[in-house]
Amino acid sequence: MTPMLTRLLSMDRVYLSFKEKRVLDNLTFEVRRGETFGFLGPSGAGKTTTIKLLTRQLVKDSGTVELFSRPIENAHDADYERIGILSDTSSLYERMSIEDNLRFYAKIRGVSDAGIGELLERVGLANDRKTLIKKCSKGMRQRATLLAALIHNPELLFLDEPTSGLDPATRLEVHRMLKDMHDRGTTIFLTTHDMTEAEELCDRVGILDNGSLVACDEPGALKLRFAENKVRIVMNDNVALETTKDAAGAVIIAQALESGGVVSIHSEEPSLNDVFLRLTGKEFE
Ligand SMILES: Nc1ncnc2c1ncn2[C@@H]1O[C@H](COP(=O)(O)OP(=O)(O)OP(=O)(O)O)[C@@H](O)[C@H]1O
């Protein structure tokens, strides 16, 4: 795993309202260099708003936002060349082919277009490179949009629901690509409504509810925090016993094993979805 020591971006006690509606409410968190950070939350929690603040499409009411160790108000133009963004407002030219769109984005970003063939290969679009965007499926568009976001090999990639609406095979291709970028040291800030995706891709996740962070940790650590102190022993006469994960439980487990009739012993771990439900009171949609 990539060493994750330095902070690449942070928010400290950030507030933002649209008219009377408070959307970000004392939001504090940081993203470290090289990590894939999952930003999770129910619909309307403020995830896209946070990305817009971090990419200067919106301005906070108060608090501190830092990007590349500088207050965002003092960001340099060059900082934006270090960033890639995929959001629902990312767009490709409908009447141009996938490949020509990528050439165009390479030109805007001031990078060579020599690597486009390899990028297309990586997401399974090489054979479709001449297809016009208007003739692409949703999955093809999404993969092409992702390539446009990372054509300049950014240090930091903001991905707002990168796999929403994709079929399972395309989703897997996108996951492979994001893991590959993570292995190359890219920092990824990702929002998703898919807990399996969050568990699979993210080093840490922050759970946002009503504009504040209610938890922030590694997925495994969060699950452990909410794990119940319960062990279930299933015996071969179909009787199930429940005990605790402590010395008293150990005695009961030892007795059950001694009896010779144990079929299985489970420690019931909550899923990330259970953790989300406990923290926000809402199902992950
Ligand atoms: N420009 C705007 N003007 C007024 N209200 C807005 C504006 N943009 C967002 N909001 C409101 O701010 C809240 C947070 O929106 P945001 O898009 O950040 O949520 P989200 O967590 O990304 O949701 P989703 O998961 O559904 O995309 C919502 O209640 C939304 O209606």
Automatic annotation (TrEMBL):
Ranges where the ABC transporter domain occurs: 9-235
Topology of the protein relative to the lipid bilayer: Peripheral membrane protein
Keyword Cell inner membrane annotated: no
Primary location recorded for the protein, binned into one broad class: membrane
SUPFAM superfamilies reported for this sequence: P-loop containing nucleoside triphosphate hydrolases
CDD domains per record: ABC_DR_subfamily_A
Pfam families in alphabetical order: ABC_tran (PF00005)
Alphabetically ordered keywords of this record: Antibiotic resistance, ATP-binding, Nucleotide-binding, Transport
Location relative to the cell: Cell membrane
Record's keyword annotation contains Transport: yes
GO molecular function, one term: ATP binding
PANTHER family associated with the record: ABC TRANSPORTER ATP-BINDING PROTEIN, ABC TRANSPORTER, ATP-BINDING PROTEIN
Protein name (database record): ABC transporter ATP-binding protein
Organism of derivation: Raoultibacter massiliensis
